[in-house]
Specification:
Elements lengths: L1 H20 L9 E8 L2 E6 L13 E4 L21 H11 L3 E5 L2 H9 L4 E3 L17 E3 L1 E2 L5 H11 L6 E4 L3 E6 L2 H20 L3
Parallel strand pairs: 7-8
Antiparallel strand pairs: 1-2, 1-4, 2-3, 4-9, 5-6, 8-9
């Protein structure tokens, strides 16, 4: 598991550096995860308090289905996972996702406050990037109220999510996106953020 965790850490470090370069993970904000096993559920989650543009392969923590750090077999301290690791695990269980991205973008925060009932998209080529036709189909990006309690936030996400949209906006907080693996989760994140930026540019 140590080698697997380090490989996952290298992938997440590269993904974090990419998002940080866009200004989506400023300072130590945001977090990423990848599923390492399903039974039992184990995820590699970025460690708390690290600059996301400077992560190394060791800046990840193995967590369980409750988002708690799993003790390492050699007795070393496992480190402290992101405070939102529990929500990452909840998303992985709920959606079957293999990777979860959480970024703090200006567009997601601004539009989450303006559209508490969600944002509807239609007739846009970029919708193909989340698996939908460019015409004649309306897709809703859910928006949920924020909470510091990950169980409450998870309940809100579960209630509001649309299985057709691999993302949800947390008002005043940021964007959660998922995919089958880190690459797909990245693509979904970039597409959903593009949609949000378009709405913001249109003054909605």
């Amino acid at each position: 598991m140590d080698a697997e965790l380090e490989r996952a850490g290298a992938v997440l470090a590269a993904e974090a550096a990419r998002f940080a370069s866009f200004g989506w993970m400023r300072g130590t904000s945001g977090n990423l995860s990848v599923v390492l096993s399903r039974d039992p559920l184990r995820l590699a989650v970025t460690a708390s308090g690290r600059d996301k543009g400077e992560l190394t392969p060791s800046d990840v923590v193995l967590v369980d289905a409750a988002g708690a750090a799993v003790p390492l077999p050699d007795g070393r301290e496992p480190g402290r996972p992101s405070a939102e690791a529990e929500l990452h695990a909840r998303v992985a269980r709920l959606t079957g996702a293999g990777a979860v991205v959480h970024v703090h973008t200006v567009a997601s925060v601004a539009l989450g406050r303006r559209h508490p009932a969600g944002l509807v998209f239609k007739d846009l080529e970029m919708l193909k990037g989340v698996g939908h036709p460019a015409e004649d189909e309306e897709i809703t990006l859910p928006v949920i109220a924020n909470s510091q309690d990950m169980r409450v936030l998870g309940d809100r996400l579960e209630e509001a999510r649309d299985p057709r949209m691999p993302a949800v906006v947390v008002a005043g907080h940021g964007l959660y996106v998922w995919g089958a693996d880190p690459r797909q989760a990245r693509h979904h994140t970039e597409v959903v953020e593009w949609l949000l930026e378009l709405e913001l540019a249109g003054g909605r």
